[in-house]
Design goal:
Oligomer: single chain
Radius of gyration: 15 Å
Bound molecules: FE2/S2 (inorganic) cluster
CATH architecture of the largest domain: Roll
Distance between the termini: 41 Å
Order of helices and strands: EEHEEEHHHH
CATH superfamily of the largest domain: Beta-grasp domain
Largest sheet: 5 strands, mixed
Structural class: alpha+beta
Number of helices: 5
Strand order of the largest sheet: 2-1-5-3-4
Length: 153
């Protein structure tokens, strides 16, 4: 049995110790916003925030995050209001197929929580998600826009 706080709610799951966190989120917790892409920690489609740090949930086990505070893309809008990152994504019309985007949004959310005015090199270093649709230019523009929204709030 493993207990985690997921999106602010403590939940206990009877699962194998080596189950990837992504499986737990999608199959046990019914939180399907985090996506399976590569399964080997490369693409970032499965990105979530654990204890304040961005992680790729396909390559970490449930046992290694027992007791942790996990935040998924389902949690970043609050009281019916989009987060700054979500708002910027809409304004800049970022997604194409959309499959990778929840992971990108979580990576950008984590970046802006620690670095509210990121430089181009901060972005380059922090955002390594792969988008097969090639939305990279719109992602960069939307990060700038999200930083503006945050600064004005
Ligand atoms: S599915 Fe986790 S990094 Fe690709
Ligand atoms: S929007 Fe299609 S993979 Fe990124």
């Amino acid at each position: 049995m493993y207990t985690l706080k997921i999106n602010g709610i403590e939940r206990t799951f009877d699962v194998e110790a080596d189950m990837p966190l992504l499986w737990l989120l999608r199959d046990e917790a019914d939180l399907t916003g985090s996506k399976f892409g590569c399964g080997i920690g490369l693409c970032g489609a499965c990105s979530v925030i654990v204890d304040g740090a961005l992680v790729r949930s396909c390559i970490i086990s449930v046992s290694s995050v027992a007791g942790s505070d996990v935040r998924t893309v389902e949690d970043i809008a609050r009281d019916g209001r989009l987060s700054a990152v979500q708002q910027a994504w809409l304004e800049m019309d970022v997604p194409q197929c959309g499959y990778c985007q929840s992971g990108v949004i979580m990576a950008v959310t984590a970046l802006l929580e620690t670095t509210p005015r990121p430089t181009a090199s901060d972005v380059e270093e922090a955002i390594s998600n792969i988008c097969r649709c090639g939305t990279y230019d719109r992602i960069r523009a939307a990060i700038d826009r999200a930083a503006q929204i945050l600064a004005a709030s």
